[in-house]
Amino acid sequence: MGTQQFVASDEVAAIRDRIDHPIIDGDGHLIEFVPWLRDLIVDSADESVAKRFDTLVTGSAAVRGVPEEARRQLGISRSSYWALPARNTLDRATAMLPELLYDRLDEIGIDFALLYPTYGLTVVGVVDDELRGAVARACNRYIAEAYAPFRDRLEPVASIPMFTPDEAIAELNFAVKELGLKSVMMAGVIPRTFEGAANDRTSRWMDTLGHDSMYDYDPVWQTCLDLGVCPTFHASGMGWGSRTSTTNYVYNHIGNFATAGEATARSLIFGGVTKRFPELRFAFLEGGVAWGVNLLADLIGHYEKRNRKSLDHYDPANLDRAKLSQLLNDYGADGHRSRVEHLDVALSMLSDPEERPDQIDDFAESMLGSVDDIIDIFTRQYFFGCEADDPMNAMAFDASKNPGNAKVQAMFASDIGHWDVPDFRGVVPEAWELVNDGHITTDDFKAFTFDNITNLLTAGNPNYFDGTSIA
Question: Are residues 255 and 336 in the same domain?
C-alpha cells in the first residue's frame, strides 16, 4: 500500500464545498504498462504478434527514418509525439498505477472515473487483423486484471475493434460477459482500402458505420443493447481529410476528434441507426460539444429545406416556364432575349428534371419524420465528452441560442493521462471556471459533471453503479 497522503488543494476543496453531488470523470486515461501488456499479447496470440506490437510501439522511430519527401507518397502523416507526462513524474505514475490514482482521486476532486486506454486507442485503428484482435484482447485482459481491486471508483473501458461486425461482437461478449467490464470504446471511423489498392495507404476511404457502410452493423448495436453497454467513440481524425501534414502534429491534431466524432454521429443518423435503436445511447469523446451544437443546427436547417415534401419547392417540374419566359422578355438584356429559345440550356445545371424519383429523398434512410426527431437524438441519445479547459462547453447549456431551446448533453471528460492535462489537480478548477465566469450555472455544472454521464451509463444498465462509491 502507498504511504503518501494526498490532500485536495484549497481551490478544489472550495468547489467541493459549493456542490452537493459527486463529480464523475467521463473520459480519463490510463497508460498501460507495456511489459505486462506484452506478456498478455504473447498469451493471447504468440511471440510473432508481440513483435509486430513492438513495431507499433516504436513506430515514431521508424517514421523518422523515412525521408520527408517520401512520406506524402507513402501516406505517412505526422502523428503524436511527447504525448504523456514527463516532468510531472507523479502524474505519469498516476496514470500507469491504479492504486496511486485511486489514492489521489480526492486530491484531484473526482469521485468516480471512467478510464479509457492509451495504447488501446491506437490499436482499434490498426489494419493488421491479427494484430488488432490480439492487442485489443490483451488490453481488455490487462485493464480487467490491473484495475479489479479499484472498481468501486475506477472503471476501465474496453477496446472494441470495429473493422467487421463479427470481430466487434466477439470482443463485446468477451469484455462484458467474461471479463465483467461495463463500458466499451470503439473507433467510429474505419479506414477501408479501395479495391485494387491493397498496399496503397493513400487510397483509402473512411467507413463511418452507418450510412454507406461496407457492413451492416445493426447486429453490433443490438449486441450493445443486449449487454447493457453504450457505444462510446474515441477515434482520430488525423491521417485523412485535411489532417495529413507530414511534418506538423499540432496542425493534424487540432479539431481531429471533433471531425471523427461528427462523421460518425452524422452517419448514424443518416443510416437510420438512431431510429432503429431508439433506446441506445452514443457518446463522442474528446472533441467537445461545439461541433455537436453545429451539427444539430445544420441538420435542422437541411431537413427543413431538403426533406421530401419541402424538396417540391425546387422540383424543376414546378417551374412556370411561361412566366419565366415573360420575365426574360420584360427584364432581360438583349443577350437574354436573343437566346430565349435556348432556355433549356440555361436551366439544366443544378436543376436537372431527369433526376430519379427514388434517389431524391436524402432523409429516407434516416427515418426522420420531423425536426423534433432530430432534437430528440441530440438531447436524449447523443452525449459529448468535453475537456475541462474548453470554454465552448458553455454552448451545450445555452438553450436560448440552440435550436428548439435544446440543452445538449455535454459531459466532463478530463483527459488526465495525456498531454492536454499538465497537472491532474487542475481539471476540476478548470471546469468550474465556467461557473465563476457566469457562463453556466451550478445546476449546469451538476449536469456536466454528474447527471449527463449517469444518464448515459444507466440507460442500458440501471445497475451500472451498484457496488461503487456513486451508489
Answer: no
Domain closes at, from 320, 336, 359: 359
> SS3 for 451?
helix
Residue type present at position 27: D
**Grid cell for residue 62:** 521508424
Instruction: Report the greatest alpha carbon distance in the chain.
Output: 93
Residue 212: band (very low, low, confident or very high) from pLDDT cuts 50, 70, 90: very high
CATH of the domain at 417: 3.20.20.140
Query: Could you report how far apart the first and last alpha carbons of the chain are, in Å?
Result: 25
Q: Which of 195, 238, 237, 240 is nearest to 214 (CA)?
A: 195
**Helices 47-57 and 34-44: crossing angle, nearest 10°?**
140
Q: For residues 17 and 127, what is the distance between their CA atoms, to the nearest angstrom? A: 49
Whether residue 4 lies inside any domain: the answer is no
Q: Cα dihedral sign for 339, 345, 349, 353?
A: positive
pLDDT, position 1: 60
Q: What is the pLDDT of residues 173-194, one digit of tens each?
A: 999 999 999 999 999 999 998 8
C-alpha separations of 66 from 69, 71, 197, 248 in Å? 8, 7, 21, 15
Q: Domain range for residue 428?
A: 10-290+365-460
363 three-class SS: coil
The predicted pLDDT at position 3 comes to 72
Cα separation, 458 vs 281, in Å, equals 10
Q: Are residues 277 and 329 in the same domain?
A: no
Q: CA 432 to CA 439: how far, in whole Å?
A: 10
Q: In 45-174, which residue ranges form alpha helices assigned H by DSSP?
A: 47-57, 59-64, 68-74, 89-96, 98-108, 119-123, 129-146, 165-173
CB 204 within 8 Å of CB 194: yes
**DSSP state letter for 359:** G
**Residue-level pLDDT at 73:** 80
User: Is 343 contained in some domain?
Assistant: yes
Task: Check whether residue 402 and residue 420 sit in a common domain.
Answer: yes
Pairing of β 190-193 and β 204-207: antiparallel
